[in-house]
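Hi everyone,

Forwarding the result from last night's run.
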Amino acid sequence: MRESARAGVRGSTAQGHGGVLNAGADSTLAEARRTTQQVARTFSLACRLLPAALRDDVYLLYLVFRTLDDLVDEGRPDADARVAAVEAWARGTAPPSTPEVDILRDLSARHDLPRDEMLEFCAGMRSDLEADVYATEEDVDRYCYRVAGTVGVTMAAVLGTSDRARALPAAGALGMAMQRTNILRDIDEDLARGRVYLAQESVARFGGRAALEPGRRGALMRDQIAQADAHYEQGIPGIALLRNGRRAVAAAAAMYREILRQIEREGHGAVPGRAVVPLRRKLVVGAREAARSRRTALT
């Protein structure tokens, strides 16, 4: 998973049971803040716009998603058990005490966390554990919903909504848009790890394995960017339905979507490597959308 829930840099957050996540509430919160700032740079910038009363709960929730993802990505031997513990919590059975379960128990005392979404997220983690391949665009959408759409829905539940029936599907679509963005941004890193998150049918339609190579994937990237943009168009209108954090979510969505524009500016994958939006550009884009969201809320 990548920065939308799974942010950019891999690695440093998965602590063993008995480590920093068990040292007490203060150290857990410090770890959550540090994790967001260190490995989710775009998300961290947006979080500064969250209401102070909710910001730490968002950090804690992100830590749950990020830790599980790191455990899975790194192939840690306890990954399966830690995912299973969250599944047990989500089903309302008696889970073992793990750092993630402890955080979820705490958060659920303050927020109506959608447990079905946590089960779906865990299903996405199991898909990664099994190194699934995705035959169709529908398969990719299902995967993106599980690993990132669920994060959007759960975050929306924490922020609150004025129209849950409309807001939560939009939040799911926005998470999916961000995950599809991540897939395109990280295509070379994933290939180096032996993973392809694009639909096999689409890769075949644009020339097969050769269509993944830098300089030869322009048509494929254009097609995939269009699909990601379509999800943004579905998700962004739902931001206005959030009770809290509209500016933060609008900024995050704009900064993430700008990655697609950066890929376009760099020739649709003409050269290998990750497309990186310059910080100044990212801040300008995020601030503009945050201001627009605020004006919309006031009208």
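Residues 4-23 have pLDDT under 50 and may be disordered.

Cheers,
N.
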